[in-house]
Design brief:
9-stranded mixed sheet; alpha/beta; 25% strand
Length: 266
Amino acid sequence: MRILLTNDDGIYAPGLRALHAELCQLGEVLVVAPATEQSAAGHSVTIYSPLLVQEVLDPSKGFQGWAVEGRPADCVKLALRQILPWKPDLVVSGINSGSNAGINVLYSGTVGAAIEGAFFQMPSIACSMEMPGNEPANFALGARLALQVIKDILGKKPDPGDLFNVNVPDLCRGPIKGVRVVPQNTASYVEWFDKRVDPRGRVYYWIGPDFTCPEPHPDTDVTALAEQWITVTPLQFNLTRFPALEIMNDWNWENTTGQLATESVR
């Protein structure tokens, strides 16, 4: 099996290195990842700046991959269009430092990279791990757990373009209960902004590091993760609201059509 590995924390992130070590059990793994941290980059891509690429060497293992001065989605796009010598069988993004559950899925560069892989009709998996409060993160264990979930997903022979979001709970909080397949939570998070003044007297705001979901929907990724379950959520990137599509096709558009006809003859 050939695997493309990327992330949004940057090519030197410990989560990526831990997952790389585990994925090598499945086959050949090549890394194309951002040169610097790109958290919350979502699915943005770089248009007006060049994408600088540099080979990265691991002191003990030699060549590790390519660092890209761009976004996570840039990395996957560039890897599949230009860099990789082969077409991968699987795209994996992670392990992200911090969970990507609930509406954070929409902001996540980790998930954005996996979505890009799904665009290219490859099974793609985003992996994230909830961080402990004051303890060092055990990325090695998190990677082993993520690998087992990836193996289980591959064992079901996912279709081309299938997309999955995997979250590992805080390993310092207690034992893992197992795996649950749950939907994405869509309740709003509570955020706060620290208001400050710079040396020139200009007001600016800096978003706080903590996000809370005060009213999470039950039986979703946010609640299951808090209960020490590894969560797996199948995702899709088609945002069409199909029930509304059917209703809106029956709307009367005569007023707009008539106005367009009048404007076209002026």
